[in-house]
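Progress note, project year one: complex with magnesium ion.
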Amino acid sequence: MSRPLRLKGIGASIGVAVASARALPSGRPRVYAKIENAAVATELRRFEKAVAKSRAEMEAAKQQLTLQHGSTYAPIFDVYLLMHEDAVLIDAIAEAIRNDAINAEWAVARVAERLRAPLLRDTSSYFRERARDIAHVEEHLLRHLSGEHRTERVSDEPVVLVGHDLSPADAVRMLAPPTVGLVTEVGAGSSHTAILARTFGVPAVVGVGPLAREIEDGEDVLVDGFAAEVTVGVSMEERREAEARKGRFAAFLEGERQSTATTEDGFAVTVTANVELPTEIEAALESSAEGIGLYRTEFMCLERQEPPSEDEQFELYRAVVTAMAPNNVAFRTFDWRGDKRIRADDLRERERDWLRTQIKAILRASSEGAVSLMFPMVATVDEFLAAKAIVEESRAALVDQSARAAVLPVGMMVEVPSAALLADRFAEHADFFAVGTNDLAHYTMALDRSDGGASATPLEPAVVRLIAGTVAAAQRAGIPCSLCGDMAANPIELGLGLGLGFRSVSVPVSVVPLARAVIRSVDLKRAQSVAEEALWCESADEVRKLLDEHLAKHLDPLWKASDL
Ligand code: PEP
Ligand code: MG
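Model obtained:
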């Protein structure tokens, strides 16, 4: 394939890196074989040894991560470690070796495939991620069965890792110098690999698709985490430009740590952070985020079969709330299935219990600082009322136990078109709205957010109208309305958001300084007239052109150079 080759993916960790590629082996062909009955015992011992080695490797990665970043990320490994003892996986593999007289490789692949298949059929990204967890453990077991080791460092020259995917254990070992960038064939912004790339500050583009396999060892690769783009076969000129951008971005971040967010014509905008894990709090404080506008609590459950206990959750929430004080933390209740809403009025009893437990923990934490609570994926007024009733039930239960539980604002994400269309009705019951443009755009445009195919943009005029209607309804009702979807994280789209009336935005922690700088470059009156015009456009392209013409050119050259 000719060079330069440009691959689009998902920007999992912002920043720019340019270095030569180190292609990770994509798994050797495995020999699947029947074995003699007499060889079964030996095969079982071979399998047990592989399990022990794989478990030791996971333990070592967990310890290394704890050493570097404290205990917060360690639970990422607990699920993998548990899987090494899981009857459904490990015992089933041993049984397949014993009963079917097949070699360990075949048994591992067969059982893993059987466990993965139903998860992959689910459209939810959450379950697909769980399927990937199984694949990671499978990969580790197969690797140890073959005696193969992941290539260790061959030189200290900076490299961009290129592979199908990285397991968390591999990520911990490999996302360290000399690795300066990461490109993977599969993956999502919420995957463990993406989280760890952000933690280690390694620019990453994931989910670039099978063309990643075209990248050869030693080729020059440019990873642009801003534009979610990978260039293979980089010219000297591009390399120089990338190095310069890297330097400018580092200097810019330094200069923006304490900056303010007031538009060019003097309107103050609140910039808060979206957070998935407690370790991000430190970065949120460092970048002077004015609170947490969206705390995605479901991330604490990624590694476990069940959510943590009420006390465990309370401790975690309390730590976040006190660290952020006096600023507010908006906890979103578990958003289990992302693209499949769970109606609060027909939750299964188990899920209802989990929700009660969580709400109680949040209510308890709310007496320690400024806290608000919001529900994801709300589609009908009835279900919002049912969810609010659970808050009251939980509060009553706490009072019965003589526990402290403050009265806190209860709001909702507006991310389902029905909620946006009925925003005025919802505004009678909600204390605040947080607009989630990621889901709102996909539901409006009938595109599946989790299938890695075409994605929807909030610049679709239909979405712009839904957002405008939501903001207007909130203004009429006098309730706060913030923008916490990724529209706020894109500098040009953020300008449109301000024009549509948002005065509070919440963005990924790493984007907080950038968002403030963008806001300072926006003239609100100009943005408002652009937003009015956008409402009458016929296509997202038309809206994009409008923004390019009237808002983008006012941005600092840094953004243009970064092609954000
Ligand atoms: C959204 O849908 O825009 C949103 C902020 O929620 P999440 O990305 O967690 O689904
Ligand atoms: Mg959402």
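Confidence is low (pLDDT under 50) at residues 338-344, 560-564.
The radius of gyration is 24 Å.
No further modelling is planned for this target in the current period.
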